[in-house]
Design brief:
By secondary structure, this protein is α+β, with helices and mostly antiparallel strands. It contains five helices and four strands. This is DUF2726 domain-containing protein.
């Protein structure tokens, strides 16, 4: 009988220890997941021996290359230069007092303008060109990008890749956007 009582007490004690350990584990995981910024653990997430990449055929799609070449030709003898694929985070800085600033900054790093026209002399951004293409799942530019560009006071054009304007029409659009060409 004495041995049975000791066995029951042992089971109760073991159950209490298991419950305390589980509670500590769950409360520490809740604290870790709900507080502080997400950090990059560097190369720890992947076996570097398993990395495999291939070079893309081009930085731009065929239609984007045509638009880039058209712009480059139009801007050839001007004070402007065109650059492809520029991140919004390289053009915009979130105001320091906005809520969720770190998240907003992260999202700007994920987005890019398709083409950027700058002043040649000082590389000052003047006109952002965003493209869309209904055939390649590239719909209208997202609202975060548009709103961010507008609040920064930058000018932009949206050009449909599946219906590229002629050179003369594009020249007119650039002039209407404020470029002195």
């Amino acid at each position: 009988m004495g041995q049975a009582i000791i066995a029951v007490l042992g089971l109760i004690l073991a159950k209490l220890i298991v419950d305390v350990v589980k509670e500590n584990i769950s409360s520490s995981s809740k604290k870790a997941s709900s507080s502080g910024p997400i950090i990059d653990l560097g190369d720890a997430w992947v076996d570097l021996n398993q990395i495999s990449s291939r070079q893309r055929e081009s930085l731009l799609s065929r239609e984007e290359i045509l638009l880039f070449q058209m712009l480059d030709s139009i801007l050839f003898d001007s004070n402007y230069k065109v650059f492809p694929k520029v991140r919004l985070a390289d053009l915009l800085t979130p105001n320091p007092n906005i809520p969720n600033r770190a998240e907003y900054k992260r999202r700007l790093r994920e987005r890019a303008v398709d083409l950027l026209i700058v002043e040649k002399q000082n590389l000052k951004p003047l006109l952002l060109i965003l493209t869309n293409n209904s055939q390649n799942k590239k719909a209208e530019p997202d609202q975060l990008s548009i709103r961010s560009i507008k609040t920064a006071g930058l000018r932009y054009l949206i050009i449909k890749l599946d219906d590229l304007p002629s050179s003369s029409s594009l020249l007119t659009k650039l002039r209407e956007a404020g470029l002195n060409i």
